[in-house]
Amino acid sequence: MSTTSKPVNQKAWLLILPVIICVAFSAVLPLMTVVNYSVQDIFSPERRVFVGTEWFAAVMRDEELHAALLRQLTFSLAVLVVEIPLGIMLALSMPAQGWKSSVVLVLVALSLLIPWNVIGTIWQIFGRADIGLGGALLQQMGVEYSYTGNAAHAWLTVLVMDVWHWTPLVALLCFAGLRSIPDAYYQAARIDGASKLAIFRYIQLPKMRGVLMIAVLLRFMDSFMIYTEPFVLTGGGPGNSTTFLSQYLTQKAVGQFDLGPAAAFSLIYFLIILLLCFILYNWMQRVGTASKEEVRYE
To answer: Which of 31, 33, 72, 232 counts the most CB atoms within 10 A of its CB?
Structure first.
C-alpha cells in the first residue's frame, strides 16, 4: 500500500526573513561586538591586546558597582511594591464602559506619551522650591525639601516620578484583564452572595494573573534599566545616591572611555536582568499554580 505525502511549502519562512535580518543587525551583531571588546584591552583602533577574563574579574571586584547594584535592586523592588497594587486599584476604580471609560482611559494614558527626557525636566522644575509647585508646597508645609542636596529626597523624588510615569501602564494592563472576565462569573458570585473582597480574590485576581505577570516583568526590566529620567533630574546625585547601574555603565564607557571594563560590565548587566526576570517569572508561575490549587480545593 503506497502512501503519498503532501508537499510542504517552505516559502512561508521568507515572511520572517526581514525580522531575522533586523534582529541580526540590531541585537546579535552589537552583542558580538560587546563580547569582543570585553576580552580585549583597546589602546586605539589599531592596537588591541587580548586579556581574557581580566575585565570581568576587575568589574566583579568594583565596590562602586556593588553599591550601584544595591541601589538598583532597592529601587526596582520599591517600584514593584508601589506600582503593582496602585495600578490594580486604579484599574478597579475605572469605569467599565461608556464614554466615561473612554475619557478615563485617555487621561490615564497621557503620562505614557511624554518622552523620558521631558519627564525628567518636568519633575526637575516641579521639585524646585523657587519656581516649582511641589517644592514650594513642601517648603510651606515646613519640610526642608531639596532633591539636589538631600540624598533621601533625591531617591524618593526619582521613585515618585517613576510611579507617576509608569503606574498607568500597569493600570491599563489590569483594566484589559478585568474586561476579559465573562459576566457569568460575576452573576454566579452575586447569586452566591460573595463580597467584593471575595470577588477580587477568587475571580478578578486569578483572571488577571497573566497580565500581572506581564506588568511585573515589564516594570522590573524597565526600572532596572532606568537612565534618562534620573540623569535629567539629579544627574546621579547628590553624591551617588541616584547613580543606578545604567548610569554607572555610561560613565565607564563614555566618561572614562574604559571600553573593555564597560563591555564586560554590560554583559554582566544583561545576565543579571535575564536571571532576575527568570526568577520572577518562575516564582509568579508557582504562585499562580498554588492559587489555582487553593481555589479548586475550596
So the answer is: 72
Question: In sequence order, what DSSP letters do the residues of 64-128 get, joined into one string?
Answer: HHHHHHHHHHHHHHHHHHHHHHHHHHHHHHS-SSSHHHHHHHHHHHGGGGS-HHHHHHHHHHHT-
The CATH number for 164's domain is 1.10.3720.10
Return the pLDDT at 84.
93
* pLDDT band of 297, cuts 50, 70, 90: very low
- For residue 41, the SS3 value is strand
Cβ atoms of residues 257 and 168 within 8 Å: no
Q: For residue 18, is it within any domain?
A: no
Residue 259 lies in a domain: yes
Is 55 in contact with 39 (CB distance < 8 Å)?
A: yes
- Nearest partner of 83 among 11, 165, 202, 188, judged by Cα: 165
Extended beta strands in the chain, E state:
40-42, 48-50
Mean pLDDT of 214-242: 88
| Rounded-to-integer distance, Cα 121 and Cα 142, Å | 25
Q: Supply the pLDDT for residue 82.
A: 95
Q: Is the pLDDT of residue 47 over 80?
A: no
Q: Which range marks the domain in which residue 175 is found?
A: 70-297
3-state DSSP assignment of residue 8:
coil
Cell 497580565 sits at which residue? 211
**In total, how many domains does the chain have?**
1
51 inside domain: no
Per the domain annotation, does 112 fall within a domain?
yes
